[in-house]
C-alpha cells in the first residue's frame, strides 16, 4: 500500500494489479497553473519526452495573462532569481534574455542600526536577476520588457504545450483517469494531473476540504509594494545592489529593497505581516535614509500575498502530483529555484518511470523530503537571525566581520559568504549552517564581537564609517 | 543595467591556453573565438555565440585550459562555478545532458577535422 492522494474526490482508482502506470504515445497531461512550476514542468517534460521518442499532449490551464501590468498579470513575488538558478538555467541552455532581466544584481547591502556593509558578488559579476513576474507594476509605462512567467510559458508553448485560458475549479478521479473541471463548465480527462497553482489558489482549499488525508501548505501573510523612482535616481541611490535590512522589529524575518528598471520593489517576509509592522518598518531611520531626501514616496502598487511555510502532505497520488509552492518549496528563499527543482523531478519521474503514486513516492518524494529537511535547518537559522536582530552586540560583531572581509583583497570571506548565501538563497540552509560551525568562522566572529564592542570601536561600522559620515548612532 | 554576467570589450581574452580554472562560461550575448596556440602561431578552432558555453572541461578535471578564448565583439558572459554545477548534477544528473551532447558534437567535429588533415598529409 502506497501512501498518497489515493482517494482524491470521487471514485477510487481501480486497483492496478502491479502493471505499470506509464504514459504512452497519445497520453494527455493537464498542468494546472502556469507559474514557474507549471511552465517549467511542461518545458522539461516535453523536451525529455522528445529525447526518448514519447509523444504526449500537455494542456496548461492558466487564466492569468502575463502581458498585463499590475496585479492582473503578476504572481506576486520579490522577483529575485537566485544565483544558483540563474546558473542552472544557463547550463540548461536557458539564459535569461535581457528583456526579462530588469536589473542584474551584483551586490547585497546590509543595513542595520550600527552601520551598513556592501557585500559584493565573489566574481564582480551580475549573477542574480531582478525580474517582474507580470509585465510591471500597475500604471507603469509600456517599455521593452517581458514578464518572467510569460517567458517561461513561451518556452513551454514553443515545446508544444497548449495553453487553455481557464480557471480550474475541481479535479476528480474518474476510474483510471483524472477529470479536470473549469469554472465555465468545460471539463476534460487526463492520464496525469500536475497541480502547480501556487498557494494563493482556491483549488488547494477545495482539495483540502474534500480529501481527508490531504493538508495544503501552511501559509503566512507577506507584503510587497513598488515605488516609482526613475532609472537615474535608482542608479544613484541603489545601484546594482539589493538592500537588505536587519532591524529589531518583532515578527519581521526578512526585508529587502530590490531595484528594477524605473521601480524599486519592497518585500517584507515574516510572521503575518500587517500594517502595524509595515508602519514600524517605514518609520525606522535605516529605511528612510535609503530614499532620496529621507522621504519615502507613495507606492504605486502593493499586495499581501501568502508564502508557503510548511509543505503540503502528501504531494502525490496515482496520476497526480503537486509541484512548486502547491507542494514543497524553500522557506522564505529561492521559491522559483524550488519550483524549478520540483518541476524537473516530477517531469523526470513521469517520463522515465511512470505516474503511479509508487513512482512519485520513489522518484519525486525524496527531493521534497530533502527540501523539507533543509527547511527545518532554515528555521533554526532564522531563529538565530532573530536573536541577532534583537542584540546590538551581535549585530556589531557580524557587521564588523563582514566589513573587514570586504576590505581585504584576498583571504577567506566567511561571514560575507554566509550572509550572501542567506540573502540570495544560493546555497542550502544546511550548507550555510555547517559553515557557521567551522572553528575559523567561530573564532573570527568572537574576535569581531569583542573588537566591535570595545568603547573605542563603538561608532558606525562599514560604508558610512569608511566615507567618514558623522551620523554616528548609538 | 539589465542583463546578467560580466561585460568584455571586443578582443579581450577570457582565459589563455595553459591557465588553470574552475568554472565554465555561458555567453549571454556577443561572440567569442576559441584559439589553439602552438609555436607562437594561432589556429582558430571555432566561434561561439549566445547560449554557447566554453571552459566546461575545468568542471570535470583539474587540467589546464586547452585553448585561449577571446571576444570578437562586445560580449557578456556568465560564469558557472564548479561547486554549483557539481551540486546540481549530484541532485539532477540530467543537468549535464546538454554539456555531454555539445562535447560529443565537438569530438565529432575534431575527429572530422583530423581525418581531413590526415588525408591532406
Ligand atoms: C512576498 C514574496 C516574495 C517572494 N520573493 C521571491 C523571490 O524574490 N525569489 C524567489 O525565487 N521566490 C520568491 N517568492 C516565492 C515565489 O513567488 C514562489 O515560490 C513561486 O512563485 C512558486 O511558483 P509556482 O509556479 O509554484 O506558483 P505561482 O507562482 O503562485 O503560480 C501559480 C499559477 O497558477 C495559476 N492558478 C492558480 N489557481 C489556478 C486554477 N485554479 N486554475 C488555473 N490556474 C491557476 C495562477 O494564476 C498562477 O499563474 C516570494 C514569495 C512571496 C510571497
Structural key phrases:
heterodimer, A: 474 residues, alpha/beta, FAD/NAD(P)-binding domain, 3 domains, eight-stranded mixed sheet, six-stranded mixed sheet, 15 helices, 36% helix, B: 121 residues, alpha+beta, Jelly Rolls, four-stranded antiparallel sheet, 3 helices, 31% helix, 34% strand, globular, binds flavin-adenine dinucleotide
Topology of helices and strands:
The complex is a heterodimer of chains A (474) and B (121).
Chain A: E1 28-32, H1 36-51, E2 57-61, E3 80-81, H2 83-91, E4 101-105, E5 107-112, E6 115-120, E7 128-131, H3 148-158, E8 162-164, E9 168-174, E10 177-182, E11 187-190, E12 192-195, H4 202-210, E13 218-221, E14 223-228, H5 231-237, E15 241-245, E16 252-260, E17 263-270, H6 275-283, H7 285-288, E18 299-303, E19 306-310, E20 316-317, E21 320-322, H8 335-352, H9 357-363, H10 365-390, H11 392-407, H12 414-424, H13 429-435, H14 439-453, E22 461-462, H15 463-467
Parallel strand pairs in A: 1-2, 1-12, 2-8, 5-15, 6-22, 12-21
Antiparallel strand pairs in A: 3-7, 4-7, 5-6, 9-10, 10-11, 13-19, 14-17, 14-18, 15-16, 16-17, 20-21
Helix pairs in contact in A: 1-3, 1-8, 10-11, 11-12, 11-14, 12-13
Chain B: E1 6-8, E2 13-15, E3 23-29, E4 32-38, E5 41-48, E6 53-54, H1 57-60, E7 68-71, E8 75-81, H2 82-91, H3 97-120
The structure holds flavin-adenine dinucleotide.
